[in-house]
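Thread title: Can someone regenerate the structure for this chain?

I was given the following input by a collaborator and told the matching structure tokens would be attached. They weren't. Posting the sequence so someone can regenerate them.
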Amino acid sequence: MTAASGCSPDISTALQNVTHEIRQVQALLTSEKDLDPRVLTDFRDAVNRVRNTAWAVAQYANSKEAEADPRTILSLLAGERVRVAYQLCRLVQADMENSEITLQKGQLLQLRDATSELTRQLGEVVG
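Best answer:
Regenerated them for you:
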């Protein structure tokens, strides 16, 4: 880790590169007239997830420096994952109803298995 940034050089370089690319995308977004709203929604959701994760990582690092209990931050991050999972479930439902979209059976089987296990665990937690 570098002392100045607190990040490894690889992470710092990746963040600088992504920041540059996002600025380029921002310029394209402001000039594009016929953008598919679904693509824009996916992009916005991805950027929001990255933003929330970056905030949580920063808060977690701050709590460690201040020797505070990081459980609150970890709980907030877990809550954010639940919110995103809900959103993704709704989007997958819409995709399955869309006749223009073909989903791969193998991926659907994996999703079914994962959601079945999650449903079982949710039943234990929420009754």
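The chain has two domains: 1-34, 35-126.
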